[in-house]
Amino acid sequence: MYFSSLFLFWFSYHGSLVVLHHISTKKNPIPQRIVHGTTIEIHRNIFPSIILMLIDIPSFALSSHYYKSYWTSIVSECASSRGWASTLPYEYWDYKSSIGQSLTFGSYTIQEDDQELGQSHLLEVDNRVVLPAKSPICFIVTSDDVSHSWVVPSLGIKCNVIPSHLNQTSIMEYDQCSEIRGNNHEFIPIIVEVLPMKDNGYRVFSQYIPQSPNKQQ
User: Fold this and answer.
1) Which of 34, 69, 173, 199 is the most buried (most CB within 10 A)?
2) How far apart are CA 82 and CA 40, in angstroms?
3) Would you give the DSSP letter of residue 145?
4) pTM for this one?
5) Is residue 164 left, alpha or beta, with left meaning phi > 0 and alpha meaning psi from -120 to 50?
6) Domain spanning 76-216: which CATH class is it, in words?
7) Is 177 exposed, middle or buried (0-12, 13-18, 19+ CB in 10 A)?
8) How far apart are CA 50 and CA 4, in angstroms?
């Protein structure tokens, strides 16, 4: 990027000198060749395009390298929500079971009659989202019915969940879906729990894998 900027400065500087030389009345008293020259007009359009392409190539490569290097220890999640039920399905793409399937579970709202002492009203779920501590996290969210919102303001996260779109955002916190689209839709709770990396895998597998077939149904 530094060399591209240096080349652009050098090219612009020398191009300005050439233009000043040709518009001089002593060197070029009849300026028709410069004012109406087809060749210079073609060069004027082609060379800036080439310069922009030379700047774009390292920029795109740098952006791609940034995402690949930063999300090396990623734990991806997909919250595909359904508006007709007070639940948010989650999927851990980086965690595989013994048969090679990614871990999928539902995070269902615990009704008031089933809540235990100390649990938060309208904010408690049966399965919390468990994330590794001190590790970069990437959330990829989508919806299969209506628009939702995966939002945890205390973490500075608010990501719109739109059907047929994949939105990405980059950890124990409580909040709710902020879209009102149906029965109990405004009371879809979201709980995220962050654990040390060494405990996260054991906690996730031991808690969800035996129950995952039932939760998916």
Assistant:
1) 173
2) 61
3) S
4) 0.45
5) left
6) mainly beta
7) buried
8) 11
